[in-house]
Write a structure and sequence with these properties.
Helix content is 32%, strand content 25%. The chain is α/β, with parallel strands linked by helices. Among the domains are: 235 residues, P-loop containing nucleotide triphosphate hydrolases (Rossmann fold, 3-Layer(aba) Sandwich), CATH 3.40.50; 122 residues, P-loop containing nucleotide triphosphate hydrolases (Rossmann fold, 3-Layer(aba) Sandwich). It has a six-stranded mixed beta sheet with strand order 6-9-10-3-11-12, with helices on both faces. A six-stranded mixed beta sheet has the order 18-21-22-15-23-24, sandwiched between helices. Strand 11 and strand 12 form a beta hairpin. The radius of gyration is 26 Å and the shape is globular.
Length: 511
Protein backbone atom coordinates (compact mmCIF):
# COMPACT_ATOMS: atom_id res chain seq x y z
CA UNK A 1 0.00 0.00 0.00
CA UNK A 2 1.25 3.48 -0.84
CA UNK A 3 2.28 5.78 1.96
CA UNK A 4 -1.03 7.13 3.25
CA UNK A 5 0.64 10.30 4.43
CA UNK A 6 0.79 11.50 0.83
CA UNK A 7 -2.15 13.39 -0.61
CA UNK A 8 -4.10 11.66 -3.37
CA UNK A 9 -6.32 12.80 -6.19
CA UNK A 10 -9.40 11.59 -4.33
CA UNK A 11 -9.30 14.41 -1.78
CA UNK A 12 -6.88 15.89 0.69
CA UNK A 13 -5.96 13.60 3.59
CA UNK A 14 -7.10 15.47 6.70
CA UNK A 15 -5.92 12.56 8.86
CA UNK A 16 -3.49 9.81 7.96
CA UNK A 17 -2.05 7.05 10.09
CA UNK A 18 0.91 4.83 9.35
CA UNK A 19 1.91 1.56 11.05
CA UNK A 20 -0.42 2.30 13.96
CA UNK A 21 -0.31 -0.37 16.69
CA UNK A 22 -2.17 -1.13 19.89
CA UNK A 23 -1.97 -4.15 22.19
CA UNK A 24 -4.04 -5.03 25.24
CA UNK A 25 -1.86 -7.52 27.06
CA UNK A 26 -1.18 -10.38 24.68
CA UNK A 27 -4.05 -9.35 22.38
CA UNK A 28 -3.09 -7.35 19.29
CA UNK A 29 -6.07 -5.04 18.74
CA UNK A 30 -4.46 -3.02 15.94
CA UNK A 31 -1.39 -4.44 14.24
CA UNK A 32 0.40 -1.88 12.09
CA UNK A 33 -2.50 -0.18 10.29
CA UNK A 34 -2.07 2.49 7.63
CA UNK A 35 -4.98 4.44 6.20
CA UNK A 36 -6.10 7.95 5.34
CA UNK A 37 -9.28 9.93 5.98
CA UNK A 38 -10.00 12.37 3.18
CA UNK A 39 -11.83 15.67 3.00
CA UNK A 40 -15.20 15.56 1.29
CA UNK A 41 -15.53 11.79 1.57
CA UNK A 42 -17.63 9.37 3.59
CA UNK A 43 -15.39 6.43 4.49
CA UNK A 44 -16.96 3.18 5.63
CA UNK A 45 -15.04 1.31 8.33
CA UNK A 46 -16.28 -2.26 8.61
CA UNK A 47 -15.28 -5.59 10.13
CA UNK A 48 -16.45 -8.29 12.49
CA UNK A 49 -16.70 -7.62 16.21
CA UNK A 50 -13.15 -7.69 17.51
CA UNK A 51 -11.65 -6.68 14.15
CA UNK A 52 -10.17 -3.49 15.63
CA UNK A 53 -12.62 -0.83 14.42
CA UNK A 54 -13.47 0.65 17.81
CA UNK A 55 -9.81 0.66 18.79
CA UNK A 56 -8.98 2.57 15.60
CA UNK A 57 -11.65 5.15 16.39
CA UNK A 58 -10.25 5.50 19.90
CA UNK A 59 -6.66 5.86 18.68
CA UNK A 60 -7.51 8.64 16.24
CA UNK A 61 -10.01 10.46 18.47
CA UNK A 62 -7.60 10.40 21.41
CA UNK A 63 -9.33 8.12 23.91
CA UNK A 64 -6.73 5.33 23.44
CA UNK A 65 -2.96 5.77 23.36
CA UNK A 66 -1.12 3.84 20.60
CA UNK A 67 1.87 1.58 21.22
CA UNK A 68 3.50 2.50 17.93
CA UNK A 69 3.10 4.19 14.57
CA UNK A 70 2.31 7.79 13.69
CA UNK A 71 -0.73 9.99 13.21
CA UNK A 72 -0.65 13.01 10.94
CA UNK A 73 -3.32 15.71 11.02
CA UNK A 74 -3.11 18.45 8.37
CA UNK A 75 0.54 17.56 7.82
CA UNK A 76 1.51 17.77 11.49
CA UNK A 77 2.80 14.49 12.92
CA UNK A 78 1.86 13.16 16.38
CA UNK A 79 2.99 10.08 18.28
CA UNK A 80 -0.34 10.06 20.10
CA UNK A 81 -3.45 12.17 20.57
CA UNK A 82 -5.40 12.83 23.74
CA UNK A 83 -9.10 13.82 23.65
CA UNK A 84 -8.34 17.52 24.19
CA UNK A 85 -5.72 17.66 21.43
CA UNK A 86 -7.87 15.66 19.03
CA UNK A 87 -10.80 17.98 19.70
CA UNK A 88 -8.68 21.06 19.12
CA UNK A 89 -7.59 19.55 15.79
CA UNK A 90 -11.19 19.07 14.73
CA UNK A 91 -11.56 15.33 15.37
CA UNK A 92 -14.77 14.12 17.00
CA UNK A 93 -16.40 10.74 17.65
CA UNK A 94 -20.21 10.51 17.63
CA UNK A 95 -21.01 7.42 19.68
CA UNK A 96 -24.18 5.31 19.74
CA UNK A 97 -25.11 7.07 22.97
CA UNK A 98 -24.02 10.72 22.64
CA UNK A 99 -21.80 12.15 25.37
CA UNK A 100 -24.15 14.83 26.67
CA UNK A 101 -25.22 16.03 30.10
CA UNK A 102 -28.74 14.66 30.13
CA UNK A 103 -30.07 16.94 32.86
CA UNK A 104 -28.93 20.15 31.14
CA UNK A 105 -30.85 21.84 28.35
CA UNK A 106 -30.02 21.49 24.67
CA UNK A 107 -28.66 25.05 24.62
CA UNK A 108 -26.47 24.46 27.67
CA UNK A 109 -25.04 21.29 26.15
CA UNK A 110 -24.27 23.02 22.86
CA UNK A 111 -22.05 25.64 24.50
CA UNK A 112 -20.79 23.62 27.49
CA UNK A 113 -17.21 24.66 28.20
CA UNK A 114 -17.47 27.49 25.67
CA UNK A 115 -20.17 29.63 27.26
CA UNK A 116 -20.31 33.24 25.99
CA UNK A 117 -19.67 35.62 28.87
CA UNK A 118 -19.89 39.33 29.54
CA UNK A 119 -17.82 40.65 32.42
CA UNK A 120 -17.32 37.06 33.56
CA UNK A 121 -21.04 36.28 33.65
CA UNK A 122 -22.68 33.84 31.26
CA UNK A 123 -24.83 35.66 28.70
CA UNK A 124 -27.88 33.43 28.42
CA UNK A 125 -29.20 35.47 25.53
CA UNK A 126 -26.05 34.71 23.55
CA UNK A 127 -26.21 31.07 24.69
CA UNK A 128 -29.66 30.74 23.14
CA UNK A 129 -28.64 32.58 19.99
CA UNK A 130 -25.53 30.47 19.49
CA UNK A 131 -27.43 27.24 20.16
CA UNK A 132 -30.13 28.17 17.65
CA UNK A 133 -27.48 29.03 15.06
CA UNK A 134 -25.61 25.74 15.54
CA UNK A 135 -28.79 23.71 15.12
CA UNK A 136 -29.85 25.76 12.10
CA UNK A 137 -26.52 25.04 10.42
CA UNK A 138 -27.39 21.32 10.31
CA UNK A 139 -31.12 21.96 9.72
CA UNK A 140 -32.04 20.34 13.05
CA UNK A 141 -35.49 21.13 14.43
CA UNK A 142 -34.68 20.57 18.11
CA UNK A 143 -36.08 22.79 20.90
CA UNK A 144 -33.17 24.43 22.68
CA UNK A 145 -34.87 24.87 26.04
CA UNK A 146 -35.71 21.27 26.89
CA UNK A 147 -33.46 18.89 28.83
CA UNK A 148 -31.47 16.46 26.71
CA UNK A 149 -32.97 13.50 28.59
CA UNK A 150 -36.38 14.40 27.14
CA UNK A 151 -35.16 14.11 23.53
CA UNK A 152 -35.45 11.13 21.22
CA UNK A 153 -32.23 9.22 20.40
CA UNK A 154 -32.20 10.83 16.95
CA UNK A 155 -32.44 14.36 18.35
CA UNK A 156 -29.75 13.67 20.95
CA UNK A 157 -27.51 12.58 18.12
CA UNK A 158 -28.19 15.81 16.22
CA UNK A 159 -27.31 17.83 19.31
CA UNK A 160 -24.02 15.94 19.62
CA UNK A 161 -23.19 16.63 15.97
CA UNK A 162 -24.05 20.32 16.32
CA UNK A 163 -21.97 20.59 19.50
CA UNK A 164 -18.91 19.11 17.82
CA UNK A 165 -19.31 21.20 14.69
CA UNK A 166 -19.56 24.26 16.93
CA UNK A 167 -16.22 23.26 18.41
CA UNK A 168 -14.68 23.15 14.92
CA UNK A 169 -14.94 19.44 14.10
CA UNK A 170 -13.86 18.58 10.53
CA UNK A 171 -13.29 14.84 10.95
CA UNK A 172 -16.30 13.03 12.39
CA UNK A 173 -16.55 9.37 13.34
CA UNK A 174 -20.09 7.95 13.42
CA UNK A 175 -20.01 4.67 15.36
CA UNK A 176 -23.14 2.53 14.68
CA UNK A 177 -25.21 5.73 14.51
CA UNK A 178 -28.50 4.18 13.36
CA UNK A 179 -28.73 1.48 16.05
CA UNK A 180 -31.62 3.27 17.79
CA UNK A 181 -33.08 5.10 14.77
CA UNK A 182 -36.10 4.40 12.62
CA UNK A 183 -36.12 4.62 8.79
CA UNK A 184 -37.13 8.28 8.63
CA UNK A 185 -34.57 9.27 11.27
CA UNK A 186 -31.89 7.28 9.48
CA UNK A 187 -32.58 9.06 6.20
CA UNK A 188 -32.42 12.42 7.97
CA UNK A 189 -29.02 11.45 9.40
CA UNK A 190 -27.81 10.37 5.96
CA UNK A 191 -28.80 13.74 4.49
CA UNK A 192 -26.81 15.46 7.22
CA UNK A 193 -23.76 13.27 6.57
CA UNK A 194 -23.96 14.03 2.85
CA UNK A 195 -24.09 17.77 3.57
CA UNK A 196 -21.11 17.49 5.92
CA UNK A 197 -19.03 15.73 3.26
CA UNK A 198 -20.12 18.20 0.58
CA UNK A 199 -18.91 21.03 2.81
CA UNK A 200 -15.43 19.47 2.94
CA UNK A 201 -15.63 17.53 6.20
CA UNK A 202 -14.32 13.98 6.41
CA UNK A 203 -16.78 11.40 7.75
CA UNK A 204 -15.90 7.90 8.95
CA UNK A 205 -18.99 5.70 9.13
CA UNK A 206 -18.70 2.56 11.29
CA UNK A 207 -21.56 0.09 10.91
CA UNK A 208 -22.49 -3.59 10.71
CA UNK A 209 -25.40 -2.70 8.44
CA UNK A 210 -23.89 -3.25 5.04
CA UNK A 211 -26.83 -1.81 3.14
CA UNK A 212 -26.04 1.51 4.85
CA UNK A 213 -22.39 1.29 3.83
CA UNK A 214 -23.38 0.97 0.18
CA UNK A 215 -25.89 3.80 0.47
CA UNK A 216 -23.80 6.44 2.22
CA UNK A 217 -20.07 5.69 1.66
CA UNK A 218 -17.72 6.38 -1.25
CA UNK A 219 -14.88 4.19 0.00
CA UNK A 220 -14.68 1.19 2.34
CA UNK A 221 -11.86 0.06 4.63
CA UNK A 222 -12.22 -3.50 5.89
CA UNK A 223 -10.48 -4.58 9.08
CA UNK A 224 -9.89 -8.15 10.21
CA UNK A 225 -7.84 -9.34 13.20
CA UNK A 226 -6.45 -5.84 13.77
CA UNK A 227 -5.32 -5.33 10.17
CA UNK A 228 -6.63 -3.50 7.12
CA UNK A 229 -7.37 -6.23 4.58
CA UNK A 230 -9.12 -4.09 1.97
CA UNK A 231 -9.34 -0.40 1.04
CA UNK A 232 -11.49 0.06 -2.07
CA UNK A 233 -14.06 2.35 -3.67
CA UNK A 234 -17.54 1.17 -2.78
CA UNK A 235 -18.38 0.77 -6.47
CA UNK A 236 -15.87 -2.09 -6.73
CA UNK A 237 -17.66 -4.13 -4.05
CA UNK A 238 -20.94 -5.92 -3.56
CA UNK A 239 -22.38 -7.39 -0.37
CA UNK A 240 -20.98 -10.85 -1.04
CA UNK A 241 -17.40 -9.70 -1.68
CA UNK A 242 -17.52 -7.30 1.26
CA UNK A 243 -18.73 -9.98 3.67
CA UNK A 244 -16.11 -12.41 2.34
CA UNK A 245 -13.39 -9.82 3.03
CA UNK A 246 -14.70 -9.21 6.54
CA UNK A 247 -15.05 -12.88 7.42
CA UNK A 248 -11.93 -14.08 5.62
CA UNK A 249 -13.78 -17.09 4.29
CA UNK A 250 -16.48 -18.01 1.80
CA UNK A 251 -19.94 -18.04 3.32
CA UNK A 252 -21.93 -21.22 3.27
CA UNK A 253 -25.24 -19.50 4.01
CA UNK A 254 -25.56 -16.34 1.90
CA UNK A 255 -28.50 -14.16 2.83
CA UNK A 256 -30.12 -13.83 -0.55
CA UNK A 257 -33.60 -14.13 -1.93
CA UNK A 258 -32.75 -16.72 -4.57
CA UNK A 259 -35.00 -19.79 -4.37
CA UNK A 260 -33.37 -23.13 -3.68
CA UNK A 261 -34.71 -26.52 -4.63
CA UNK A 262 -35.72 -28.39 -1.50
CA UNK A 263 -38.02 -31.31 -0.94
CA UNK A 264 -40.53 -31.82 1.84
CA UNK A 265 -39.13 -34.47 4.14
CA UNK A 266 -41.12 -37.68 4.51
CA UNK A 267 -39.53 -38.28 7.92
CA UNK A 268 -41.96 -38.45 10.82
CA UNK A 269 -42.07 -35.29 12.99
CA UNK A 270 -39.93 -35.28 16.11
CA UNK A 271 -42.21 -32.66 17.70
CA UNK A 272 -45.92 -32.18 16.95
CA UNK A 273 -48.47 -29.69 18.25
CA UNK A 274 -52.22 -30.01 17.90
CA UNK A 275 -54.59 -27.28 19.03
CA UNK A 276 -52.06 -25.73 21.41
CA UNK A 277 -53.26 -22.51 23.00
CA UNK A 278 -52.63 -20.17 25.89
CA UNK A 279 -55.41 -17.71 26.63
CA UNK A 280 -55.53 -15.03 23.97
CA UNK A 281 -51.79 -15.20 23.30
CA UNK A 282 -51.96 -18.45 21.31
CA UNK A 283 -54.98 -20.06 19.69
CA UNK A 284 -55.20 -23.50 18.09
CA UNK A 285 -51.60 -23.96 16.99
CA UNK A 286 -50.92 -27.00 14.80
CA UNK A 287 -47.28 -27.59 13.96
CA UNK A 288 -44.97 -30.42 12.85
CA UNK A 289 -41.21 -30.12 13.39
CA UNK A 290 -39.11 -32.71 11.54
CA UNK A 291 -35.54 -33.82 12.23
CA UNK A 292 -32.93 -32.59 9.78
CA UNK A 293 -34.93 -29.50 8.81
CA UNK A 294 -35.07 -25.81 9.64
CA UNK A 295 -38.63 -24.77 10.44
CA UNK A 296 -38.96 -21.00 10.36
CA UNK A 297 -41.41 -19.03 12.47
CA UNK A 298 -42.29 -15.66 10.93
CA UNK A 299 -44.41 -12.88 12.35
CA UNK A 300 -44.31 -9.28 13.47
CA UNK A 301 -44.05 -8.15 17.10
CA UNK A 302 -46.95 -9.60 19.07
CA UNK A 303 -47.58 -12.43 16.61
CA UNK A 304 -47.01 -15.10 19.26
CA UNK A 305 -43.89 -16.74 17.85
CA UNK A 306 -41.77 -15.89 20.91
CA UNK A 307 -44.49 -17.13 23.26
CA UNK A 308 -44.76 -20.36 21.25
CA UNK A 309 -40.99 -20.84 21.41
CA UNK A 310 -41.12 -20.33 25.19
CA UNK A 311 -43.85 -22.98 25.59
CA UNK A 312 -41.84 -25.47 23.55
CA UNK A 313 -38.85 -24.83 25.84
CA UNK A 314 -40.81 -25.19 29.11
CA UNK A 315 -40.77 -21.53 30.15
CA UNK A 316 -44.57 -21.41 30.02
CA UNK A 317 -47.32 -24.02 29.91
CA UNK A 318 -50.08 -24.32 27.35
CA UNK A 319 -53.69 -24.06 28.52
CA UNK A 320 -55.06 -26.39 25.88
CA UNK A 321 -54.05 -28.76 23.13
CA UNK A 322 -51.40 -31.46 23.05
CA UNK A 323 -47.72 -31.73 22.24
CA UNK A 324 -45.86 -34.95 21.44
CA UNK A 325 -42.12 -35.55 21.27
CA UNK A 326 -41.06 -38.67 19.40
CA UNK A 327 -44.66 -39.92 19.67
CA UNK A 328 -44.89 -39.44 23.45
CA UNK A 329 -46.82 -36.76 25.33
CA UNK A 330 -44.64 -33.71 25.89
CA UNK A 331 -45.64 -31.09 28.48
CA UNK A 332 -42.50 -29.71 30.14
CA UNK A 333 -43.08 -27.88 33.41
CA UNK A 334 -39.68 -26.17 33.35
CA UNK A 335 -36.73 -25.50 31.02
CA UNK A 336 -34.75 -28.16 32.91
CA UNK A 337 -37.40 -30.75 32.07
CA UNK A 338 -37.37 -29.66 28.43
CA UNK A 339 -33.58 -29.91 28.33
CA UNK A 340 -33.70 -33.45 29.72
CA UNK A 341 -36.14 -34.30 26.92
CA UNK A 342 -33.77 -32.82 24.34
CA UNK A 343 -35.51 -29.49 23.60
CA UNK A 344 -33.38 -26.37 24.10
CA UNK A 345 -33.96 -22.67 23.54
CA UNK A 346 -31.39 -20.03 22.62
CA UNK A 347 -33.28 -16.90 23.77
CA UNK A 348 -33.54 -13.58 21.99
CA UNK A 349 -31.95 -11.59 24.84
CA UNK A 350 -28.61 -13.31 25.29
CA UNK A 351 -27.41 -10.93 28.03
CA UNK A 352 -30.31 -11.12 30.46
CA UNK A 353 -31.72 -14.54 29.56
CA UNK A 354 -28.91 -16.46 27.88
CA UNK A 355 -25.38 -15.65 29.03
CA UNK A 356 -24.03 -15.74 32.58
CA UNK A 357 -21.82 -12.70 32.08
CA UNK A 358 -19.84 -13.13 35.32
CA UNK A 359 -19.17 -16.84 34.82
CA UNK A 360 -16.40 -18.30 32.68
CA UNK A 361 -16.79 -19.42 29.10
CA UNK A 362 -16.37 -23.02 30.26
CA UNK A 363 -19.04 -22.77 32.97
CA UNK A 364 -21.44 -21.13 30.52
CA UNK A 365 -20.94 -23.99 28.06
CA UNK A 366 -21.58 -26.87 30.50
CA UNK A 367 -24.31 -25.17 32.53
CA UNK A 368 -27.18 -26.91 30.72
CA UNK A 369 -25.78 -30.38 31.51
CA UNK A 370 -23.57 -30.17 34.57
CA UNK A 371 -23.90 -33.92 35.01
CA UNK A 372 -21.65 -34.37 31.96
CA UNK A 373 -18.90 -32.35 33.65
CA UNK A 374 -19.30 -33.95 37.10
CA UNK A 375 -17.80 -36.92 38.90
CA UNK A 376 -19.77 -38.49 41.73
CA UNK A 377 -21.91 -35.38 41.98
CA UNK A 378 -19.00 -32.91 42.10
CA UNK A 379 -18.07 -30.61 39.24
CA UNK A 380 -14.68 -31.41 37.76
CA UNK A 381 -13.05 -28.17 36.62
CA UNK A 382 -10.62 -30.13 34.47
CA UNK A 383 -13.46 -32.03 32.80
CA UNK A 384 -15.42 -28.79 32.48
CA UNK A 385 -12.50 -27.09 30.71
CA UNK A 386 -11.91 -30.07 28.39
CA UNK A 387 -15.59 -30.39 27.53
CA UNK A 388 -15.99 -26.68 26.90
CA UNK A 389 -12.69 -26.35 25.05
CA UNK A 390 -13.78 -28.58 22.21
CA UNK A 391 -16.97 -26.58 21.68
CA UNK A 392 -15.23 -23.22 22.01
CA UNK A 393 -12.85 -24.35 19.27
CA UNK A 394 -15.66 -25.66 17.07
CA UNK A 395 -17.58 -22.41 17.48
CA UNK A 396 -14.46 -20.31 16.80
CA UNK A 397 -14.98 -18.18 19.93
CA UNK A 398 -12.48 -15.30 20.01
CA UNK A 399 -10.60 -14.83 22.21
CA UNK A 400 -10.88 -18.48 23.24
CA UNK A 401 -10.17 -18.71 26.95
CA UNK A 402 -12.28 -21.20 28.95
CA UNK A 403 -11.63 -19.30 32.19
CA UNK A 404 -12.43 -15.80 30.89
CA UNK A 405 -15.77 -14.28 31.89
CA UNK A 406 -18.56 -14.06 29.34
CA UNK A 407 -18.79 -10.29 29.65
CA UNK A 408 -15.31 -9.92 28.12
CA UNK A 409 -16.56 -11.18 24.74
CA UNK A 410 -18.07 -9.26 21.85
CA UNK A 411 -21.77 -9.72 21.11
CA UNK A 412 -21.20 -12.26 18.37
CA UNK A 413 -18.87 -14.35 20.50
CA UNK A 414 -21.27 -14.20 23.44
CA UNK A 415 -23.95 -15.62 21.18
CA UNK A 416 -21.60 -18.41 20.13
CA UNK A 417 -21.09 -19.33 23.79
CA UNK A 418 -24.86 -19.42 24.36
CA UNK A 419 -25.17 -21.67 21.31
CA UNK A 420 -22.36 -23.82 22.69
CA UNK A 421 -24.33 -24.42 25.88
CA UNK A 422 -27.26 -25.67 23.80
CA UNK A 423 -25.01 -27.95 21.73
CA UNK A 424 -23.38 -29.37 24.86
CA UNK A 425 -26.80 -30.74 25.87
CA UNK A 426 -27.03 -32.63 22.53
CA UNK A 427 -30.47 -31.32 21.50
CA UNK A 428 -33.04 -33.15 19.42
CA UNK A 429 -34.90 -29.88 18.88
CA UNK A 430 -33.01 -26.58 18.96
CA UNK A 431 -35.12 -23.41 19.14
CA UNK A 432 -33.33 -20.25 18.01
CA UNK A 433 -35.12 -16.98 18.84
CA UNK A 434 -33.56 -14.09 16.88
CA UNK A 435 -30.16 -15.85 16.91
CA UNK A 436 -28.28 -13.21 14.90
CA UNK A 437 -29.79 -10.00 16.25
CA UNK A 438 -27.06 -7.55 17.20
CA UNK A 439 -24.12 -9.64 15.95
CA UNK A 440 -21.73 -8.70 13.17
CA UNK A 441 -21.85 -10.22 9.70
CA UNK A 442 -19.01 -12.65 10.32
CA UNK A 443 -20.67 -14.11 13.42
CA UNK A 444 -23.98 -14.14 11.57
CA UNK A 445 -22.47 -16.11 8.71
CA UNK A 446 -20.92 -18.57 11.16
CA UNK A 447 -24.23 -19.09 12.98
CA UNK A 448 -25.95 -19.77 9.68
CA UNK A 449 -23.30 -22.32 8.76
CA UNK A 450 -23.67 -23.97 12.16
CA UNK A 451 -27.43 -24.30 11.62
CA UNK A 452 -26.74 -26.09 8.35
CA UNK A 453 -24.30 -28.45 10.08
CA UNK A 454 -26.80 -29.25 12.81
CA UNK A 455 -29.64 -30.14 10.45
CA UNK A 456 -27.25 -32.30 8.43
CA UNK A 457 -26.65 -34.20 11.68
CA UNK A 458 -30.40 -34.74 12.13
CA UNK A 459 -31.19 -31.98 14.63
CA UNK A 460 -34.55 -30.24 14.18
CA UNK A 461 -34.12 -26.47 14.24
CA UNK A 462 -36.94 -24.04 14.95
CA UNK A 463 -35.88 -20.57 13.76
CA UNK A 464 -37.95 -17.64 15.07
CA UNK A 465 -36.76 -14.47 13.37
CA UNK A 466 -38.00 -11.06 12.29
CA UNK A 467 -35.33 -11.05 9.56
CA UNK A 468 -37.18 -12.30 6.49
CA UNK A 469 -33.98 -12.70 4.50
CA UNK A 470 -32.58 -14.91 7.22
CA UNK A 471 -35.73 -17.03 7.30
CA UNK A 472 -35.88 -17.52 3.54
CA UNK A 473 -32.14 -18.26 3.35
CA UNK A 474 -32.17 -20.96 6.02
CA UNK A 475 -35.63 -22.48 6.31
CA UNK A 476 -37.07 -25.57 4.66
CA UNK A 477 -40.58 -24.51 5.71
CA UNK A 478 -41.89 -21.27 7.18
CA UNK A 479 -44.94 -21.07 9.43
CA UNK A 480 -46.35 -17.55 9.64
CA UNK A 481 -48.12 -16.27 12.76
CA UNK A 482 -50.28 -13.22 13.41
CA UNK A 483 -52.16 -12.29 16.59
CA UNK A 484 -51.46 -15.66 18.18
CA UNK A 485 -52.65 -17.79 15.27
CA UNK A 486 -51.03 -19.62 12.38
CA UNK A 487 -52.04 -17.72 9.25
CA UNK A 488 -50.02 -19.64 6.65
CA UNK A 489 -47.39 -22.30 6.11
CA UNK A 490 -45.07 -22.30 3.09
CA UNK A 491 -42.48 -24.77 1.81
CA UNK A 492 -39.39 -23.52 0.00
CA UNK A 493 -38.89 -21.80 -2.40
CA UNK A 494 -40.48 -18.82 -0.74
CA UNK A 495 -42.40 -15.78 -1.90
CA UNK A 496 -41.48 -12.94 0.47
CA UNK A 497 -44.58 -10.93 -0.42
CA UNK A 498 -46.90 -13.80 0.49
CA UNK A 499 -45.06 -14.27 3.79
CA UNK A 500 -45.39 -10.58 4.64
CA UNK A 501 -49.07 -10.61 3.73
CA UNK A 502 -49.66 -13.58 6.03
CA UNK A 503 -47.65 -11.92 8.80
CA UNK A 504 -50.00 -8.94 8.77
CA UNK A 505 -53.00 -11.27 8.93
CA UNK A 506 -54.05 -10.38 5.39
CA UNK A 507 -54.16 -14.00 4.24
CA UNK A 508 -54.44 -17.47 5.69
CA UNK A 509 -53.29 -19.61 2.83
CA UNK A 510 -50.98 -22.62 2.90
CA UNK A 511 -48.99 -24.32 0.19
Amino acid sequence: MADPLQETGNGRALVAVSALEKRFGAVVAVGGVSLEIRAGEVLGLVGENGAGKSTMVGLISGSIAPDGGRIRVDGQEYAALDPHTAGSLGIAAIRQEPVLVRTLSVAENLVLGREPRRLGIVSWREVRQRAARLLAEIDAQVPIGVAVEALSPADRQLVEVARNLGAGARVLFFDEPTAALGPAETERLFELIRRLAASGAAVVYVSHRLEEIFEICQRVVVMRDGLVVADRPVGELNEETLVAAMAGRELVAQERAEARERHESSVEPVLSLRGVGQGRRLVGIDLDIRPGEVHGLAGIVGSGRTRLSSILAGLFSADEGEMTLNGRRYAPSSPAEAIRAGVLLVPEDRLSAGLFADLSQATNIVFSRYDKASRRGFVSRALEARSAGALLERLDVRPRNPQAHGRTLSGGNQQKVVLGRALFAEPKVLILDEPTRGVDVGAKAYIHRLVRELVSEGVAVVLASSDLRELTALSDRITVMARGRVTASFPAPFDSERIMAAATGATARSS
